[in-house]
């Protein structure tokens, strides 16, 4: 069963993964529709460890140089 973390514990979890996040950052991002996936139960917010792990992977961003390297290899 997935472990549910409140916002403070989620920030600590991400920081433990080497991605420093504050509780306040998660709150702001959540209000903007950004950040890791979360659940709302009544008036409480919870993050699962799996959602935080997925978020911690980040997104790959292609640059002109990385695209050039791929086209030279192909």
Question: What would a concise description of this structure say?
Answer:
The protein has four helices and three strands. It is α+β, with helices and mostly antiparallel strands and 74 residues long.
Kindly list the characteristics that best describe this protein.
single chain, 74 residues, alpha+beta, 3-stranded antiparallel beta sheet, 50% helix, elongated
Per-chain topology:
Blueprint: E1 4-5, H1 7-16, H2 23-31, E2 39-41, E3 44-48, H3 49-56, H4 64-73
Number of domains: 1
Strand percentage? 5-15%
Instruction: Kindly name the structural category.
Output: alpha+beta
Q: Please outline the major beta sheet.
A: 3 strands, antiparallel
Based on the structure, what is the oligomeric state of the protein chains? single chain
Record the strand order, biggest sheet. Answer: 1-3-2
Order of helices and strands: EHHEEHH
Poorly predicted runs: none
Number of strands: 3
Number of helices: 4
Describe the structure.
- By secondary structure, the protein is an alpha+beta fold.
- The chain has one domain (4-73).
- It has helices at residues 7-16, 23-31, 49-56, 64-73, and strands at 4-5, 39-41, 44-48.
- A 3-stranded antiparallel β-sheet has the order 1-3-2.
- The longest helix has 10 residues, at 7-16.
- It is elongated, with a radius of gyration of 16 Å.
- The mean pLDDT is 91.
């Amino acid at each position: 069963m997935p472990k549910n973390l409140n916002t403070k514990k989620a920030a600590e979890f991400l920081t433990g993964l080497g991605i420093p996040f504050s509780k306040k950052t998660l709150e702001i991002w959540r209000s903007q529709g950004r950040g890791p996936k979360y659940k709302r139960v009544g008036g409480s917010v919870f993050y699962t460890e799996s959602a935080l792990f997925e978020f911690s992977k980040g997104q790959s961003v292609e640059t002109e140089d990385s695209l050039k390297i791929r086209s030279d290899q192909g």
